[in-house]
Amino acid sequence: MRDLRIAVIPGDGIGKEVVPEGIRVLEAAAAKHDLRFKWDEFPWSCEYFLEQGRMMPVDGLDRIRHHDAIFLGAVGFPGVPDHVSLWGLLIPIRRGFKQYANVRPVKLMPGVPCPLAGRQVGDIDFIVVRENNEGEYSSIGGRLYEGTDQEMAVQQTVFTRQGVDRILKYAFELAQSRPKKHLTSATKSNGIAITMPYWDERVKAMGARYPEVKVDQFHIDILCAHFVRNPHWFDVVVGSNLFGDILSDLGPGCTGTIAIAPSANLNPEREFPSMFEPVHGSAPDIYGKGIANPIGQIWAGAMMLDHLGCPEAGASVVAAIEKVLASGLRTPDMGGKASTTDMGRAIADAV
Ligand code: ATP
Ligand code: MG
């Protein structure tokens, strides 16, 4: 029997509805695979912010530092600006715990209507790896000459050798471990002529260490077009913080619904806990109706099992999702009538 201690942050909105379904399914997987979960719940959220003036306590990171992983729903709610939930909770956890690899599988699932004409299950099955700690999302910069006609805003992109090399190493290792051994790098070295050529140079240097991996690169603009026109080309796609952000929403968008897409914020060295969450947000428009699709959360749970060294348990969860989708059960976002709980129960039973 293996014990796994998980910090649970349901957060806001439908995060509070889908997290319990994720736990339900993970409990089913645990029963089958000789695992025992201990769930410690933390109420950090926009509601907490409105009461306490912060998204989480000052020593928040210390309270979850020794957990095996973090299982997050979603944060953000009307009335609290997005930058508060982002910079008050998500970014401190991602940066504080060096979760520099944001990994998002993109897979067309059986029975989910694909918005790309003619695409079938099997055609779209790749992983986007986004650099999660530096790059374009730096806080270096500011406004100059305010109030004059010379007024300007500048913000610097930061690519450190350490930061770029560690995400590339992660992406190359991942590509090497997959049957196609194919890595695509997102760049824009024609327009962004200082930082992106550096990124390209590091891709080339890292590639030399992985001779079995086939590498190609595309400028971000045409890469977006290829995601839509030729999604079957891709296996592992790596991008900087900004490009990875764009691609990791576009990818799931190409498979029908972001509601089923999972996201892992990984500290590959396992020095700190990694965090697992659905790609979608707190969806205030449907909160409280019991109709949120819990699959993104459940699939994030499967990624958590993989990361914690229980790949058979993780695979059993993904297989259960596929089986239930293939059986025709659908929440309203996929054109059906099933509730959040119906879907969670069906997947737990299938596990
Ligand atoms: P964030 O900035 O936190 O990512 P967002 O503004 O991108 O949030 P979401 O909260 O992801 O928005 O919601 C976008 C749309 O998708 C909304 O109409 C929402 O109802 C729908 N949606 C999101 N997640 C789900 C889900 N799990 N089930 C059903 N619909 C969903
Ligand atoms: Mg969003």
UniProtKB/TrEMBL annotation:
Keywords: Manganese, Metal-binding, NAD, Oxidoreductase. It catalyses: (R)-malate + NAD(+) = pyruvate + CO2 + NADH. It comes from the Bacteria. InterPro entries: ICDH/IPMDH, IsoCit/isopropylmalate_DH_CS, IsoPropMal-DH-like_dom, TTC_DH. Pfam families: Iso_dh. Its cofactor is Mg(2+); Mn(2+). Its EC number is 1.1.1.83. Residues 5-347 form the Isopropylmalate dehydrogenase-like domain. PANTHER family: D-MALATE DEHYDROGENASE [DECARBOXYLATING]. Belongs to the isocitrate and isopropylmalate dehydrogenases family. This is D-malate dehydrogenase (decarboxylating). It comes from Geothrix edaphica.
